[in-house]
């Protein structure tokens, strides 16, 4: 019995032990830390005067007394800064009183820890801001460490006693001279709604960020000569060698309408601004930022935070709609494309980045501050910790309106009764507490995302032990107890700090830590480890997240691996050092002994594709048309779907020639291929038809005379329904490449088309046509009818088939024998459509959905389809391009993405209602402002943003109204391969890298001569409505087939295939030597790859 009880006790002990969360919040009674960054609003300084009044402050980590334990510095806003000595075992001693830390009433925000004078002792630079009328209270402080927790404030002696409202700073050796230079994130006046600076020019040179060069015993301002004299609204910065040229670059996260700054180091003491060429978009209210190799490919990625809420209520109540006019003003004014979402910028390895925050599920974490990217569970993948919360919701729309009304009324009433009193203060008339009480206050949980590898993350906040509601701001990671895992320190507003003990030593994952030692600074050191066919990369840097400095130790978790093969260290002076089979589960002190130069100079840079930018120069020029003027709540524009692209030997010389369609207002172009060049052939007919929108084209012999004629699909959304501008065109070839237009050869189908595919479906010896219709202009998403055109001696007529009536919003199609009965069927895909088969039974066509093992309808936003044998079984498989998984819209069988379409307010025009699921409830996708713009009755019905935000889609529009509306659903947005198993198709989702964006066109071919077909994809959708981040993260992609229907992505650095534009078409074109792969981009240049 006693033995049984023992077993039971052991079992439950093991159960409880195994259930322990990753982190434990250490009680402050144990830590001895009594610091609290307490904030209170007063008439002299409040949220109404300073917009960042609730922004909090940072944490500084460093071993200030060199005893081997990392100590903590807390910055404070209204209360005193404090510094604590680490006594071990999560106990700390307050050393502030005798340390020399000065608390003179200044508003401290950022803490930067570094050895400024290379004496082996860590110094501290504190950034101060606020106080527009008291410059001495916003003067930064430099504490030079004199040992034994004694510091001397020396900012003036060193020339960095700056009073320019510095939010944070970062030390780095920008010129590689062995001395740490200083970059200051200076702010313009931080204007609240009632600040005297409100509305003033925030771009004055006096507000510029600054770079100071370290001359050994003082700093000098080199901002202008470095090319960094630019102002913004910087919240955070991170330094890293983003292009891997051996020199440190700069990323600055800017708030408001200033773009984030990405500067590449020119290696000559200057920098070049590269935001627009390297980043396709950024966050709008950029907050904290960290740089780390998220996907273990040896390139530094970026995690930038914004303030969009995850839950529907806070999303719709605290953020008013993006104004299109304001959005485009920012873009056209040099602010680049900015969206109110977090961005996870994955480094493509070619000086460009792709944001995949929507793909990873990390795009919305509410009012976020600090992002820390590190391997917190020691499994070999870097996780993400995010702090968030704001003392009061200053962007609550209803409260903002109410406050404005109260202030306006009280001032007007006072002036009416006191005509001669012009010297009053606002707060003499308005009750501060009354206004503050109107602002909601809600503590929020911080976020923790576990990196599962392969760009997949899980939000495990509630199970991590990091789920205490708070107003959290600056944060740092550090191994406080020297047990080999990363603990977390968080600076909270109006609460004691969080000191989290990491418990991952109990999961038996292994680690290795490196403490780098050199007489010169080690920031910028690159460390790579190799073990068990795995690879990891780490680059040291000074500050991370926001306002804060984390430990300066190289940390790698290696999961269950028992050994490390080797470590390669590249020091800042670009010398290399190699360490073989180091011991694991240990912190190694590594002294610099690097001597080897250019260790990677002999690496093979040959790629599969090479772009030829000189062979044929052509640019598609899109005409301007605002689709949203016709339908306010369109999810995306429908007028930017070109250009058409077609190939064929039009002059009988054995070389394939090229047709490129034009947008409305741009003539089409025909290029004849010569032996080593292309010649443009002029033809008046292209000019006569340049008002039309060319969206697809094909060369085929329409009249059986032995040469190729040209069919061009007219499309777009800029012309009124049933306009003649939507009539397709057939151009007849005279055999020499000269084309004439004959209107009488085609029926009058006034449809906005998308695709044309020739095939002799009636087996009479001439080619017939399937013509897909993209939409009914100005009536999205009403299903449109597509057509079969039967060829009768070169003249075409509509084939009588009811199957194609209201087929849907067709985007692509292919002919192939689906049912293996000897005649070809059609696979058709489109937006809000399932993958559809139009079965051909001796000229009788019927419609059915493709049979798959998906277990549900295949409805998606399908944009392309291609047929090929993907597994060498002689059966036709399919590759189908969808919207992708890196978009704001999400869909599943349980929670589909839907649209309702009807005249909900009985005003004679139909309304679009997009609906999504949030925590199991279906809500209108769009917010109160834009929804009531489409349906004005909503303003009278609900009146408040909070009310609208709390209602589901049925409560807003009425259950009966929705039941009577057109209703379309999407179950999946994944691009996929469909493997033919004879009786059904096996649905195989393409790799995550193929889900970065929409896939608009596909080539299936064996690109590496292994007798297995590979896939080449192009895509993107640049024309989303402005509240949705445009689908611009696709780069084109080569997927290598492995023979069983699965594929592996080939990085851009190896493939050489890079198409970052709004790529609509790709074709392969034969030439005497090899092939050309030609990519047509909307409103951009043509790309040609060899």
What integer is the average pLDDT?
A: 95
Low-confidence stretches: 1-18
N-to-C span: 79 Å
Q: How many extended strands?
A: 70
How do the strands of the widest beta sheet line up side by side? 33-32-35-36-38
The level of helicity is 10-25%
Number of helices: 18
* Large-scale geometry: globular
Bin the strand percentage. Answer: 25-35%
Oligomer: single chain
- Determine the structural class based on helices, strands and strand pairing: mainly beta
**Rg (C-alpha, Å):** 32 Å
Major beta sheet, specifics? 5 strands, antiparallel
Description of the structure:
By secondary structure, this protein is mainly beta. It starts with a helix and ends with a strand. The strands form 18 sheets. Strands 33-32-35-36-38 form a 5-stranded antiparallel beta sheet, with no helix packed on it. Strands 51, 52, 53, 54 and 55 form a 5-stranded antiparallel beta sheet that branches. Strands 1-30-29-28 form a 4-stranded antiparallel beta sheet, with no helix packed on it.
